[in-house]
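Margin note: ligand = nicotinamide-adenine-dinucleotide.
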Amino acid sequence: MSGPIPYAMVGGGVGSFIGGVHRHAIDLDGRARLVAGAFSSTGERSVESGRALGVDPERAYGSYADLIAGESGRDDRPVFVVIVTPNDMHFPVARACLRGGLHVVCDKPFTITSAEARELEGLARERGLLCAVTYNYSGYPMVREARARVAGGEIGRVRKVYAEYHQGWLATDLESSGQKQASWRTDPDRAGVGGSLGDIGTHAEQLVRFVTGLEIGSVAADLSSFVGGRVLDDDASVLMRLSEGAKGTLTCSQVCVGEANGLSLRVYGESGGLSWRQERPEQLEMTRSDGSRTVLCRGGEGLSEYTAAATRLPGGHPEGFIEAFGNLYRGVCDVLSGDGDSLLARPLPCARDGEAGMRFVEACVESAKRDSEWTSV
Ligand SMILES: NC(=O)c1ccc[n+]([C@@H]2O[C@H](COP(=O)([O-])OP(=O)(O)OC[C@H]3O[C@@H](n4cnc5c(N)ncnc54)[C@H](O)[C@@H]3O)[C@@H](O)[C@H]2O)c1
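Resulting structure:
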């Protein structure tokens, strides 16, 4: 294909959060171009958003079904669709896109249930289409370095993993004020069975699997809804039994007052440890049994080719959230351009990971219902 790959977006209208991040991330490399969208749930608002984004008003649709039908006959139709709606719409939109022969890039949590996730995974496989899930933290260079070092045996066999994602923005009953992002995230019909678990716990869960290469076999979870009247969890503590005998703990919370996006991962093997924090994403700490502690910096020497491929600027010129997202999109564009073996496409978080995330959330909810009984994922 010559020129930027045409793409469409569902969700991401005026006043929304993550749709704009996806667009900026894609624009970093100019390898894809927004041509159409169903940006909001009404035609009027969708056209308004489309206009602000420079999309032809005829190609700003009032629903995803109209988008797929309206674009299907065009020579310049989108090749992939980015889904950035609240969680409950991910499944119907992704299914319709895949059935219509369109590749999909969907935000997390992938779906509302693991059964839906399995259906999408099967559909994408059957049709030979890409179904990527934007677990964007795996796009950070120093997360990729951690993965490369674990895979290269630099810390020995993994024994213990600590994953945390702590926020404080839902420490009060924000949803009652009508705040949009809080309202749907605390509504089980729109968010799914997990509150903080689905919203941010899935990021931590994917990070554990991405960096260690291990699977989460079973969980014992304790969930709380600290804010009165809230149905879904706003805090979770999870013990995990990982493959190959490793153990882990994962905590996620949206009531840790003062915390913004406190995502961190620490991995300890038989001979060393690795520690990464998303609020200081340019650094990866490595500990060794001799007591030494080395701070590895993005852009520095001695990092893997896998990390170098995800690096845009010289060290000391900070890269962050948008660049990490952009790295996932580099992988997406590589795959769609026939280079599925590129360093950024290996591995690209996809439907299988989204499905694992949904199984994790469901297992935690089931465990918590039975007084934190160990539950298979
Ligand atoms: N990867 C990340 O770091 C990250 C961060 C934030 C949000 N997310 C995920 O992204 C998704 C969106 O989150 P957000 O915070 O941007 O939400 P938001 O409420 O800010 O935006 C949602 C957008 O979807 C639109 N929308 C709603 N229903 C629609 C429909 N039927 N058809 C078309 N558009 C529709 C809304 O009008 C709005 O523009 C969620 O699944 C969320 O979990 C991921």
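The domain at 5-136 is CATH 3.40.50.720 (Rossmann fold).
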